[in-house]
TrEMBL record:
CDD domains: DHOD_e_trans (cd06218). The keyword Oxidoreductase applies. FAD binds at R49, P50, L51, S52, G71, T72. This is Dihydroorotate dehydrogenase B (NAD(+)), electron transfer subunit. The keyword Chaperone does not apply. Its cofactor is [2Fe-2S] cluster; FAD. HAMAP family: DHODB_Fe_S_bind. It comes from Salimicrobium jeotgali.
Length: 243
């Protein structure tokens, strides 16, 4: 883990208030699916923003983010040729399964790390299904890209694209294992409904992202505590207490 000054080579809005930024470095960036980066937005924003990796080719990474506040709105103004300081790669990523039939469940900006995972699963001969949840048609993204590697079901809260309702209504009954990334209520519902093994990639507010500040500490089901940034963000199903 180290810092990199990366050049913006592509930056575009891919859905409502949702941006994809591709950054390039001159040295090797050793990332794996499920890991994330901590991006420093221009001053006066002193805190970095944790963003999941949608892909990495060694010297080029792509991340997807939503503009929630002033910091991410500032990031959205970055142009091609400008530089961004990146800390990473951070956290523990996904472990590829032994099982043959794999289901991916993503909610909103939880979809990007699953796209990279889907690519790796497909490369390793796994049968992959993916359930992608969004609020409405304006926020749907990466459907076509995911279809290159998986059988995809899109679900929206209002039914404006794909199926209507919650992702838990459209799960693959034939899956042997699942991987999920999205809001905690979604992860909690999946754990309650599914009896198969699974892995959850958690989204938490972070400070340092290296395990020193304890801003992202969560309780485990055995009474201990873990830091999402350092010990996660991917945890086996049932390890942590989901709020």
């Amino acid at each position: 883990m180290q810092t990199y000054d990366m050049k913006v080579v592509n930056h575009r809005e891919i859905a409502e208030c949702t941006y994809e930024i591709t950054l390039q470095t001159d040295v090797f960036f050793p990332a794996e699916p499920g890991q994330f980066v901590h991006i420093l937005v221009d001053p006066p924003h002193q805190l970095r923003r944790p963003l999941s990796l949608a892909s990495s080719s060694g010297r080029e990474i792509t991340v997807v983010y939503k503009t929630f506040g002033e910091g991410t709105r500032t990031l959205a103004n970055k142009k091609r040729g400008e530089t961004v300081n990146v800390l990473g790669p951070l956290g523990n990523g996904f472990t590829l399964p032994e099982q043959k039939k794999v289901m991916l469940v993503g909610g909103g900006v939880g979809v990007p790390p699953l796209l990279w995972l889907a690519k790796e699963l497909h490369k390793n001969g796994k049968k992959v299904s993916a359930v992608l949840g969004f609020k409405s048609v304006n926020q749907v993204f990466y459907r076509r890209k995911m279809e290159e590697y998986a059988e995809v079901t899109v679900v929206t809260d209002d039914g404006s694209s794909g199926e209507k309702g919650l992702v838990t209504k459209w799960l693959d009954p034939e899956a042997d294992v699942y991987y999920a990334c999205g809001p905690n209520p979604m992860l909690k519902a999946l754990e309650a409904q599914l009896t198969i093994p699974g892995y959850n990639s958690m989204e938490e507010r972070m400070g340092c992202a290296i395990g020193a500040c304890f801003a992202c500490t969560v309780e485990t089901k055995d009474g201990g505590y873990v830091n999402v940034c350092k010990d996660g963000p991917v945890f086996p199903k049932g390890r942590v207490k989901l709020p």
